[in-house]
Amino acid sequence: MSQQPPVEYITPFKLARQEQCLKGVVALREMARLGQYLISNEGEASFEILFGVDEGRTYFARGQASASLQMECQRCSKSMNVDVEAEIAIAFVTSDQQAERVSADYEPCMVEDEKLSLVSLIEDELILALPIVATHEDTGCQSWFGENEEPASLAEPRENPFAVLATLKKASDK
Ligand SMILES: [Zn+2]
User: Fold this and answer.
1) How far, in Å, from the CA of 62 to the mean position of ligand 1?
2) What separation in Å is there between the alpha carbon of 110 and the centre of ligand 1?
3) Residue 155's pLDDT is what?
């Protein structure tokens, strides 16, 4: 195995001053927290991130991270492919006070000791971009619902363990 691992730690302030662009891939198995939402951690995420300093002297990173993920369909429990694309717009800060002053265009990101895990950054963005409830397209799977009925769980937060129960109950009420 001669494959080089991705650069784990980056120096965001330095990259921003140098207006660097980072581009590459990260194996999904490197991202354990994301893995909790997935059926399989095979595959990889790709990213392209531009670093810079804007007129307001904000050190930022902008770009995309994307991945094709295997998730469990919340309707039929079979595996389904979910293409996730995360838009990244981050402002790097070193204190809570700085974080509070970040403009609404950016999401503040705390940097300690001038360095930051690139893998964690990409992982966080992908988790935020996951669908709230993953289901096959209407025609894609057998469901407990009528043809044109949306699952009740769509509006529920991802962590709600009762979402599936609620949909089951609704189907049996008919
Ligand atoms: Zn399904």
Assistant:
1) 34
2) 38
3) 46
Give the distance (Å) from ligand 1 centre to CA of residue 139: 9
CA of 151 to the centre of ligand 1 (A): 11
How far apart are the CA of 137 and the centre of ligand 1, in A?
A: 8
Residue 153 has pLDDT above 90, yes or no: no
Q: For the residues of 9-67, what is the DSSP string, one character each?
A: EE-HHHHHHTT-EEEEEEEGGG-HHHHTT-SB--SEEEEEEEEEE-TT--EEEEEEEEE
Say if pTM beats, i.e. exceeds, 0.85. no
* Segments making up each domain of the chain, as ranges: 9-135, 144-174
Q: In 33-52, which positions are buried (b, 16+ CB within 10 angstroms) versus exposed (e)?
A: ebeebbeebeebbebebbbb
Instruction: Evaluate if residue 125 carries a pLDDT over 60.
Output: yes
Distance 167 CA to ligand 1 centre (A): 14
